[in-house]
Write a structure and sequence with these properties.
The chain is mainly α. Helix content is 52%, strand content 10%. It has two domains: 73 residues, no CATH class; 39 residues. A three-stranded antiparallel beta sheet has the order 1-2-3. Helix 2 packs across helix 3. The chain is elongated.
Length: 124
């Protein structure tokens, strides 16, 4: 899932591999896919805009500065990527499951469990 921040002028601040951190129109951001807005209280919105303007991390990095890192850094002042953590934990569970059992179904189940636990923050 791609994440971004709606700015006061209606443009979206987000981070992509080809352009890094940048703003675009809602249509450019959504690419004709459904969007799921998250509402924040006014004080959170003000802090978000201030943090986004002061953020020096312009270049995209899938492990240190992806779209989720950009949004969480702007909204909470702490860069986090639950999606990435879920994928990494899932891959680790899958590897262990396959190494122990040599059964693909166990590896797939391990990946699903690890991804769910990792993205929920229960293994932090």
């Amino acid at each position: 899932m791609h994440r971004g921040i709606v700015l006061e002028d209606g443009r979206i601040l987000h981070n992509t591999p080809l352009k890094g951190r940048h703003t675009s129109t809602l249509d450019e951001f959504s690419k004709n896919k459904a969007i799921y807005p998250a509402n924040h209280q006014p004080e959170i919105r003000d802090r978000t805009l201030s943090n986004a303007k002061n953020d020096d991390n312009d270049r995209y990095n899938p492990f240190k500065n992806n779209c989720e890192h950009t949004v969480t850094r702007a909204t909470t002042n702490e860069a986090r990527s639950p999606q990435l953590r879920g994928w990494l934990v899932g891959a680790a569970f899958a590897a262990v499951g396959f190494a122990v059992t040599r059964h693909p179904a166990i590896a797939i189940a391990g990946f699903a469990l690890g991804k769910k636990l990792g993205s929920s923050g229960k293994l932090a």
